[in-house]
Amino acid sequence: MRRQTFHNAALLAPILAVAFVSALGAEVPSSEPSRQLPPGPLGEAVELGRRLVNETSDHPLSAPFVGNDLNCTSCHLDDGEHPTAGSFLGVATAYPAWSPRENRVITLEDRVLNCFMRSENGIRPPNGSEVSVAISAYITWLSQGESIAMNPDQPLGPNAVEPVRLDPATADVDRGADLYETHCAACHREDGLGSDDGPPVWGDRSYNRGAGLSQNVKLASWLKVAMPLGEPILTEQEALDIAAYVNSQERPEFVLEEHLGTQKPHAAP
């Protein structure tokens, strides 16, 4: 891959929890239900979706629709199986959902395809395409066993990132620049253009200004639970300052018509 996405990092806490319960002599419950792929073509579609999430910018099926160096798992850590950082766990239960941005009810497939336009700075794959179906099938597979709870307020699943509780006006770009140098530059480079250890966070190969992360509060909320990778130690204020600094840098503008491809769905600017 051009730029390797973030790797598995949240394994220690469950191990310590099991050890603690065992020390008390109590029965240790299984922390996660085992997931087995469905048989036949459906299982193949789920597995393809997992690969597309991990290799979005490089896989021959998805790469034509991607306009930068990000993969789905750049934001949805551990291929969406991270419990807090852009988690896919349980997401399918929230759809169909109301989307204020589109001012209509959208499906899970719609939500996936919108990410190609915004976070991937690319072209919206057609509804029903192999890419669209496979990624939606993978996310749905990660939601097995959960109760349906369609979201009437916004297109978010049950494990959505909790927003930081700060006034966006308190963000300080200068503080953010210093914090970026301390916590982020080693992987994402001082110029923000990314390396083998972390994807670009600004510039032509990063997300565009239509992406959710281009909003300081949304980026700060994600940083708070995800970064530094494997050791998220930022305070809410530090996360907000870094977000303000990162989003003050150059990145592609978002013009909806340039990202729709051949299909013209209902969408919001």
Automatic annotation (TrEMBL):
<dbReference type="InterPro" id="IPR051459">
    <property type="entry name" value="Cytochrome_c-type_DH"/>
</dbReference>
<keyword id="KW-0479">Metal-binding</keyword>
<dbReference type="GO" id="GO:0020037">
    <property type="term" value="F:heme binding"/>
</dbReference>
<protein>
    <submittedName>
        <fullName>Cytochrome c</fullName>
    </submittedName>
</protein>
<dbReference type="Pfam" id="PF00034">
    <property type="entry name" value="Cytochrom_C"/>
</dbReference>
<feature type="signal peptide">
    <location>
        <begin position="1"/>
        <end position="25"/>
    </location>
</feature>
<dbReference type="GO" id="GO:0009055">
    <property type="term" value="F:electron transfer activity"/>
</dbReference>
<dbReference type="InterPro" id="IPR009056">
    <property type="entry name" value="Cyt_c-like_dom"/>
</dbReference>
<keyword id="KW-0732">Signal</keyword>
<keyword id="KW-0349">Heme</keyword>
<feature type="domain" description="Cytochrome c">
    <location>
        <begin position="171"/>
        <end position="250"/>
    </location>
</feature>
<dbReference type="GO" id="GO:0046872">
    <property type="term" value="F:metal ion binding"/>
</dbReference>
<dbReference type="InterPro" id="IPR036909">
    <property type="entry name" value="Cyt_c-like_dom_sf"/>
</dbReference>
<dbReference type="Pfam" id="PF21342">
    <property type="entry name" value="SoxA-TsdA_cyt-c"/>
</dbReference>
<keyword id="KW-0408">Iron</keyword>
